[in-house]
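Input chain follows. Return structure tokens only.
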Amino acid sequence: MNQTTTSHQASAPGDYKSDIKPVWCPGCGDFGVVNALAKALAKMSLQPENVGIVSGIGCSSRIPAYMSCYGFHGVHGRALAAGTGLKIARPDLTVIVTGGDGDGYSIGGNHFLHACRRNVDMTYIVMDNRVYGMTKGQASPTTEPDWDSKLSPDGTGLREFLPMVIALASGANFIARGYTGDPNSLAELLVQAVRHPGFSFVEVLSPCITFRPEQLEWKKRVRAGALKPTADMTRATRRLLRDDGFDLGVLYAGSRSPYEPRGPRATKDVSELERRFVL
């Protein structure tokens, strides 16, 4: 876990970055997410000590260490569970969960469904490169069925997981797609996601040029602003039927009320709880 040690008035993107240098491969799209996230936090004038960034396992899940906010690096696929617990226990914090397509849609797929359904007020940023980059290039849930590799000759033959379809059907209150090649637009998208009440899901196209160099072509395929926000699920569904995965913008901005715990909040002091576990 990393954390801010002193309270200070953050005003610029650099104030939200830690002194730890990212170890990602040169050209990794995740650099763009760190830059966009720092810009978004600066735009909202959120103080680092009032932001909690939670992650699981994978290349993209290193992000908490690269930010100066409070951070928690959890176990594989459980980032949303940890983030939900943090937000329920500390509703005053801005909670942002980060991860990748493997961590979020494979072992973490069930948590993804229910995070959308619960609609807790937090933001989930998934960097999708359609490959397991940290473990050397296996196919992920979003990999195209015909992607040929040494580990999957002639492709997996399996249909891709469709994150935005699943998010809409499961009840996410805000759904959008961004691209790391345009960090300024991505920052604006993240601002909208954090400010929107309820569970916000942002799919970020984040190329892994080490294992999928063909993804350099994404910059020619993405269509900025092609998605326009709607609160109509039927209209959003129709748009997804035409979606090829490269339309950028806000797909859906719903009005469902965020989850609120029922009953009185716990009032015990932490020291009282600690005494119960003294051996």
